[in-house]
Amino acid sequence: MQISGGGRHTLSTGIALLLLLCVGVYAQDVRIDPNKTYVQEARERLAPQRIPADADVTLSFSEGVTYVTFSSPVRFVPWMSEAYYDITVGLETDTIYSQSLASPEGYQSGCVELPFYTPSNKDWVKIRFVAGVVAEALDFDFLKEPPDGRLTIYEREGFYQVELVSQYQESRYKVEKGSGRIYDEGHVHLVPDP
Fold first, then answer.
1. Which residues contact 12 (CB under 8 A, 6 or more apart)?
2. Which of 63, 73, 54, 118 is nearest to 95 (CA)?
3. DSSP code of 105?
4. More confident residue, 74 or 146
5. What is the tens place of the pLDDT at every residue in 40-73?
6. φ/ψ of residue 106, rounded to 5
7. d(CA 171, CA 174)
8. What are phi and psi of 180, to 5 degrees?
9. Which of 41, 79, 89, 184 is most buried, most CB within 10 Å of its CB?
Protein backbone atom coordinates (compact mmCIF):
# COMPACT_ATOMS: atom_id res chain seq x y z
CA MET A 1 0.00 0.00 0.00
CA GLN A 2 1.43 3.37 -1.02
CA ILE A 3 0.95 6.26 1.40
CA SER A 4 2.88 9.02 -0.42
CA GLY A 5 1.45 11.06 -3.32
CA GLY A 6 -2.30 11.06 -2.73
CA GLY A 7 -1.75 9.10 0.47
CA ARG A 8 -5.15 9.80 2.02
CA HIS A 9 -6.98 8.41 -1.01
CA THR A 10 -4.67 5.41 -1.28
CA LEU A 11 -4.84 4.73 2.47
CA SER A 12 -8.66 4.93 2.40
CA THR A 13 -8.79 2.62 -0.59
CA GLY A 14 -6.42 0.20 1.13
CA ILE A 15 -8.55 0.16 4.29
CA ALA A 16 -11.72 -0.33 2.24
CA LEU A 17 -10.11 -3.26 0.39
CA LEU A 18 -8.92 -4.75 3.68
CA LEU A 19 -12.44 -4.47 5.10
CA LEU A 20 -13.94 -6.07 1.99
CA LEU A 21 -11.39 -8.88 2.22
CA CYS A 22 -12.28 -9.47 5.91
CA VAL A 23 -15.99 -9.42 5.15
CA GLY A 24 -15.41 -11.76 2.21
CA VAL A 25 -13.46 -14.20 4.37
CA TYR A 26 -16.16 -14.07 7.07
CA ALA A 27 -18.92 -14.51 4.50
CA GLN A 28 -17.31 -17.72 3.26
CA ASP A 29 -18.06 -19.34 6.65
CA VAL A 30 -21.71 -18.28 6.56
CA ARG A 31 -24.16 -20.91 5.41
CA ILE A 32 -26.92 -18.57 4.33
CA ASP A 33 -28.27 -19.11 0.84
CA PRO A 34 -28.02 -15.71 -0.91
CA ASN A 35 -31.10 -16.53 -3.01
CA LYS A 36 -33.35 -16.76 0.07
CA THR A 37 -34.56 -14.19 2.54
CA TYR A 38 -33.54 -14.47 6.18
CA VAL A 39 -37.10 -15.50 7.06
CA GLN A 40 -37.20 -18.28 4.43
CA GLU A 41 -33.83 -19.53 5.61
CA ALA A 42 -34.98 -19.58 9.26
CA ARG A 43 -38.22 -21.40 8.39
CA GLU A 44 -36.23 -24.10 6.58
CA ARG A 45 -33.87 -24.51 9.53
CA LEU A 46 -36.88 -25.09 11.80
CA ALA A 47 -38.40 -27.79 9.56
CA PRO A 48 -40.31 -29.94 10.32
CA GLN A 49 -41.53 -27.41 12.94
CA ARG A 50 -44.43 -25.53 11.37
CA ILE A 51 -44.43 -21.80 11.93
CA PRO A 52 -47.81 -20.20 11.14
CA ALA A 53 -47.86 -17.68 8.31
CA ASP A 54 -49.32 -15.04 10.66
CA ALA A 55 -46.46 -15.32 13.18
CA ASP A 56 -44.82 -12.02 14.05
CA VAL A 57 -41.28 -11.90 12.68
CA THR A 58 -38.44 -9.72 13.97
CA LEU A 59 -34.87 -9.52 12.73
CA SER A 60 -31.95 -8.54 14.92
CA PHE A 61 -28.23 -8.50 14.37
CA SER A 62 -25.53 -8.94 17.01
CA GLU A 63 -21.82 -9.63 16.72
CA GLY A 64 -22.05 -10.94 13.17
CA VAL A 65 -25.08 -13.14 13.76
CA THR A 66 -28.49 -12.63 12.18
CA TYR A 67 -31.35 -13.63 14.49
CA VAL A 68 -34.85 -14.31 13.14
CA THR A 69 -37.54 -14.53 15.82
CA PHE A 70 -41.02 -15.94 15.23
CA SER A 71 -43.62 -15.04 17.87
CA SER A 72 -47.27 -15.92 18.27
CA PRO A 73 -49.36 -12.77 17.81
CA VAL A 74 -51.92 -14.26 20.21
CA ARG A 75 -50.43 -16.11 23.15
CA PHE A 76 -53.31 -18.25 24.39
CA VAL A 77 -52.23 -21.16 26.58
CA PRO A 78 -55.02 -23.78 26.74
CA TRP A 79 -55.56 -25.80 29.92
CA MET A 80 -53.38 -28.93 30.14
CA SER A 81 -51.13 -27.92 27.27
CA GLU A 82 -47.56 -26.92 26.51
CA ALA A 83 -46.26 -25.35 23.30
CA TYR A 84 -43.70 -22.94 21.89
CA TYR A 85 -44.75 -19.32 21.49
CA ASP A 86 -41.39 -17.82 20.52
CA ILE A 87 -38.58 -19.38 18.51
CA THR A 88 -35.36 -17.61 17.51
CA VAL A 89 -32.91 -18.89 14.91
CA GLY A 90 -29.29 -17.70 14.81
CA LEU A 91 -28.55 -18.19 11.12
CA GLU A 92 -24.76 -18.04 11.11
CA THR A 93 -24.41 -20.18 14.25
CA ASP A 94 -27.14 -22.76 13.58
CA THR A 95 -28.58 -22.12 17.03
CA ILE A 96 -32.25 -22.29 17.98
CA TYR A 97 -33.67 -20.67 21.10
CA SER A 98 -37.26 -21.29 22.13
CA GLN A 99 -39.69 -20.40 24.87
CA SER A 100 -42.49 -22.72 25.84
CA LEU A 101 -45.47 -21.88 28.01
CA ALA A 102 -47.71 -24.31 29.85
CA SER A 103 -51.01 -24.34 31.68
CA PRO A 104 -51.13 -25.16 34.51
CA GLU A 105 -47.73 -23.74 35.39
CA GLY A 106 -45.14 -26.52 35.43
CA TYR A 107 -47.25 -28.83 33.26
CA GLN A 108 -45.19 -31.00 30.93
CA SER A 109 -46.87 -32.65 27.97
CA GLY A 110 -44.23 -35.34 27.57
CA CYS A 111 -43.85 -34.51 23.85
CA VAL A 112 -40.35 -34.89 22.49
CA GLU A 113 -41.00 -32.16 19.90
CA LEU A 114 -43.27 -29.40 21.17
CA PRO A 115 -45.35 -27.67 18.51
CA PHE A 116 -45.34 -23.95 17.77
CA TYR A 117 -48.73 -22.83 19.03
CA THR A 118 -51.48 -22.26 16.48
CA PRO A 119 -54.97 -21.48 17.87
CA SER A 120 -57.60 -24.12 17.12
CA ASN A 121 -61.20 -23.11 16.31
CA LYS A 122 -62.11 -23.99 19.90
CA ASP A 123 -59.30 -21.77 21.19
CA TRP A 124 -60.48 -18.87 19.00
CA VAL A 125 -63.91 -19.05 20.68
CA LYS A 126 -62.21 -18.65 24.08
CA ILE A 127 -59.88 -15.91 22.84
CA ARG A 128 -62.82 -13.94 21.39
CA PHE A 129 -64.73 -14.36 24.67
CA VAL A 130 -61.84 -12.88 26.68
CA ALA A 131 -61.29 -10.15 24.06
CA GLY A 132 -64.97 -9.18 24.23
CA VAL A 133 -64.97 -8.99 28.03
CA VAL A 134 -61.78 -6.93 28.08
CA ALA A 135 -63.01 -4.60 25.30
CA GLU A 136 -66.26 -3.93 27.15
CA ALA A 137 -64.80 -3.50 30.64
CA LEU A 138 -61.50 -1.81 29.86
CA ASP A 139 -62.29 -0.19 26.51
CA PHE A 140 -59.44 -2.07 24.85
CA ASP A 141 -59.96 -4.55 21.99
CA PHE A 142 -56.67 -6.39 21.62
CA LEU A 143 -57.87 -8.31 18.55
CA LYS A 144 -58.55 -5.11 16.59
CA GLU A 145 -55.66 -3.12 18.02
CA PRO A 146 -52.77 -5.36 19.03
CA PRO A 147 -51.16 -4.15 22.25
CA ASP A 148 -47.81 -2.47 22.43
CA GLY A 149 -46.18 -5.29 24.33
CA ARG A 150 -46.83 -8.92 25.07
CA LEU A 151 -50.32 -10.23 25.78
CA THR A 152 -50.74 -13.74 27.19
CA ILE A 153 -53.96 -15.49 28.17
CA TYR A 154 -53.62 -18.60 30.33
CA GLU A 155 -56.63 -20.87 30.58
CA ARG A 156 -57.11 -22.01 34.18
CA GLU A 157 -59.79 -24.03 35.93
CA GLY A 158 -62.76 -21.66 36.16
CA PHE A 159 -61.05 -18.52 34.79
CA TYR A 160 -58.62 -17.00 32.30
CA GLN A 161 -55.50 -15.27 33.58
CA VAL A 162 -54.64 -12.29 31.37
CA GLU A 163 -51.19 -10.68 31.43
CA LEU A 164 -50.14 -7.65 29.41
CA VAL A 165 -46.54 -6.51 29.70
CA SER A 166 -45.42 -3.46 27.73
CA GLN A 167 -42.48 -1.10 27.98
CA TYR A 168 -44.21 1.13 30.53
CA GLN A 169 -46.95 -0.96 32.16
CA GLU A 170 -47.68 -4.42 33.44
CA SER A 171 -51.32 -5.47 33.89
CA ARG A 172 -52.72 -8.72 35.25
CA TYR A 173 -56.29 -9.75 35.84
CA LYS A 174 -58.57 -12.72 35.79
CA VAL A 175 -61.69 -13.24 33.70
CA GLU A 176 -64.21 -15.68 35.12
CA LYS A 177 -65.37 -18.34 32.66
CA GLY A 178 -69.08 -18.10 31.87
CA SER A 179 -69.89 -14.78 33.58
CA GLY A 180 -66.97 -12.77 32.17
CA ARG A 181 -66.48 -11.01 35.50
CA ILE A 182 -63.05 -9.37 35.80
CA TYR A 183 -61.37 -9.66 39.21
CA ASP A 184 -57.93 -9.59 40.88
CA GLU A 185 -57.01 -6.70 38.61
CA GLY A 186 -53.58 -5.16 39.09
CA HIS A 187 -51.51 -2.61 37.22
CA VAL A 188 -47.91 -1.57 37.73
CA HIS A 189 -46.29 1.36 35.93
CA LEU A 190 -42.73 0.58 34.93
CA VAL A 191 -39.98 3.18 34.89
CA PRO A 192 -37.77 2.96 31.80
CA ASP A 193 -34.01 2.65 32.24
CA PRO A 194 -32.28 6.06 32.25
1. none
2. 63
3. T
4. 74
5. 888 888 877 778 888 888 899 999 899 999 988 7
6. 90, -5
7. 10
8. 80, 10
9. 89
Q: In Å, how far from its chain's centre is CA 137? A: 28
Please compute, for residue 112, the number of CA atoms within 13 A of its CA located in the half-sphere on the CB side.
0
Report pTM: 0.72
Give the model confidence (pLDDT) of 15-37 as tens digits: 333 333 333 333 334 455 655 78
Task: Supply the pLDDT for residue 162.
Answer: 92
Single-letter residue type at 156: R
C-beta of residue 162 within 8 angstroms of C-beta of residue 130: yes
Characterize 92-113 residue by residue with b for buried, 16 or more Cβ atoms within 10 angstroms of its Cβ, and e for exposed: beeeeeeebbbbeeeeeeeeee
CA distance 178 to 88: 37
